[in-house]
Amino acid sequence: MINLFQHLRDESVDASLVQLLESVINASKEIAFRVRQGALAGVLGSTQDENIQGETQKNLDVISNQLLKDLLLACPHVRALASEEEDTVVAGNPQGEFIIAFDPLDGSSNIDINGQIGTIFSIYRARENIAANDEAQFRQQGSTQVCAGYVLYGPSTLLVITIGKGTHAFTLDTIQGTFLLTAKDIRIPADTKEFAINMSNQRFWNETMRRYINDLVLGESGPRGKNFNMRWNAAMVGDVHRIISRGGIFLYPSDNRNPKQPAKLRLLYEANPMALLIENAGGKAWNETQRILEIQPRELHERVAVILGSANEVDMCLNYSGS
Ligand code: AHG
Ligand code: MN
Ligand code: MN
Q1: pLDDT of residue 251 exceeding 80
Q2: Considering the domain 4-183 in this protein, what is its CATH number?
Q3: CA atoms of 236 and 252, how far apart (whole Å)
Q4: CB of 236 shorter than 6 A to ligand 1
Q5: Distance between CA atoms of 184 and 167, rounded to whole angstroms?
Q6: Lowest CB count within 10 Å: 66, 123, 252, 283, which one?
Q7: CA-closest residue to ligand 1 atom 15
Q8: pLDDT (0 to 100) of residue 55
């Protein structure tokens, strides 16, 4: 079987990017090990602190962030990093060629229930003539990402990655400690009968979104004329992985719960990397009006609506007039 680093060589990936990825991989293998140990490694439970977004930090959020940060700052190719758990940009080597944004631990509410969690990352070329610690480093459209991926800590540990072309999956061989290629050039089916949305937010959605979801739920007897199944992992990384594995549509639409926060998911380290992985597997990823990868980022922790997955179903949702 081909391991990750053989694959990167076969794809002629720059040595500097390979070295950066090695840091991400080493941190995520360490996170995976601690996740497996669970309570025995003292990774469950919450801290007393909140991150800049007002969310309580879990112990594993903080541990994962620290591991990634330490390894990435030791890598000479990292000019700057941005993390869900860091208020501002963290400067690395001023000569580093790349910047990286990450969600160290996605699906925090699943940590204590032994559910699916993951790490999401997004890599860009550093911008010249801009200081390493300047937020402007990260004001780059998602379409310019040189690499994006996630590591899913599920029953097995999986890395799903795209470096320009194709989306590939590697499974961690826990005996050898290497990621082995287990799915090459993944293609997401264009049609689906499965959707993922947090239905408890229904009353906060706009009228079109309510109608679209309602018509899915009506199944065979409704205007769509087919039955749909619903899944919700409460971890984007788990929901996106299901869609990458067998298709589906994932939605975290804008809502009117809190006027200061019209959407939940973060552009830089959730929506953009997932959008690139989905598009490079033949799927679509939009907010309610445009391709996620074409959004011009304004702030480090900015939030966006996300509708992604099987291409025909995403189109159906975006153009919905319905019953
Ligand atoms: P995080 O744990 O990094 O804060 O992200 C959680 C996100 C995302 O992974 C998931 O899709 C969504 O929040 C779940 O939201 P609900 O709690 O509304 O289900
Ligand atoms: Mn997250
Ligand atoms: Mn997180």
Answers
A1: yes
A2: 3.30.540.10
A3: 9
A4: yes
A5: 7
A6: 66
A7: 234
A8: 86
Amino acid at 31: I
User: Of 101, 94, 113, whose CA–CA distance to 233 is shortest?
Assistant: 113
CATH 3.40.120.10, applies to 194-321: no
* Residue 108, ligand 1, Cβ within 6 A: yes
Residue with tokens 């030791």: 74
- How far apart are the CA of 197 and the centre of ligand 3, in A? 18
Q: Is the pTM for the entire model greater than 0.90?
A: yes
Our answer on whether the CB atom of 107 is closer than 6 Å to any ligand 1 atom is: yes
**Residues spanned by CATH 3.40.190.80 within the chain?**
194-321
51 CA → ligand 1 middle, Å: 14
103 lines ligand 1 (CB under 6 A): yes
Contact residues for 225 (Cβ-Cβ < 8 A; gap 6+): none
- In the chain, residues under CATH classification 3.30.540.10 are 4-183
Q: Distance between CA atoms of 304 and 307, rounded to whole angstroms?
A: 10
Identify which ligand lies nearest to the alpha carbon of 235.
Answer: 1
- Among the bound ligands, name the one nearest to the CA of residue 55: 1
Q: For residue range 139-178, what is the model confidence (pLDDT) as tens digits?
A: 999 999 999 999 999 999 999 999 988 999 999 999 999 9
End-to-end CA distance of the chain: 50
Average model confidence (pLDDT) across the chain = 96
Per-residue pLDDT of 178-197, as tens digits, reads 999 999 999 999 999 999 99
Å from CA of 312 to ligand 2 middle: 26
CA proximity to 308, closest of 280, 290, 283: 283
Phi and psi based region of residue 145 (left: phi greater than 0; alpha: psi -120 to 50; beta: remaining): beta
Task: Answer yes or no: is pLDDT of 16 > 90.
Answer: yes
86 lines ligand 1 (CB under 6 A): no
Number of helical H runs and strand E runs in the chain: 7, 17
> 235 in ligand 1 pocket by Cβ < 6 Å?
yes
27-46 pLDDT per residue, tens: 999 999 999 999 998 889 98
Nearest ligand by distance to the CA of 85 = 3
